[in-house]
Amino acid sequence: MSETLQKVIGETLQRPQTVLTGEWALFLDIDGTLLEHAEHPDAVSVSDELRSLLQGLDHKLNGALAVITGRSVAAVDQLFQPLKLRAAGLYGLEHRLLPDDDVEVAGEPADIAALADEIEAELGRGQAYIERKGRVLAIHTRAAPHLLPRATQLVEQALASLPKGYRVVAGNAGVELLPLEAAKGAAIRRFMGIAPFTGRRPVFLGDDTPDENGFEAVNDAGGISIRIKPPAHTTARYGLAGVAETLAWLRGQL
Fold this sequence. Notes:
The chain is about 35% helix and about 20% strand. The protein is an alpha/beta fold. Strands 4-3-2-1-9-10-11 form a seven-stranded mixed sheet, sandwiched between helices.
């Protein structure tokens, strides 16, 4: 752990000491939280140990566990198969409130498809990765960080020609175009309104800018917000140094 990160966690954001019991509901981001980031979203894999850990936590909390992610629910299922979790995909545009529920897939509007084609042509194939997720457009620049300023500029310029209701969110290694209703906080509140989440206190772990909205919702509900590799400014109230420490903390809850 870097000296700076030690200072952030040691002096500003303490490691959470809470032991999760039946009064809690657990919400988890995936990339950067449960799994280390990769240059391409499809380059990650889930170990049997992680599947077993999530299954154990889900059982302990009587089903009050859900993943809240920018990935689609179909992508979540492919990643964690055969385990099926409650999930909010595409920042809440897709929901599976029960493990066996059908999911209404978010389609890709023609204007977003055209924009994706334009950005891909501008940035070049094989450098930035353009991920088309229905109404969500993500430009990943982890493999080509020098392209992030230009990718952000292209997406921000596109807002003027798109219907109202979109926003740009810059992350640690990329930029996304999202509908306003695609928000992790809204997804968490939706889960908190149904069994077995109702009446519990929420805990949310995330690592990036889009997770801040979820931290705010959890703070408002009197829950526990935990940012992984926290920056100097975050609305999260607790911090963990990285994926390894996150998994260790989760294992300690069983």
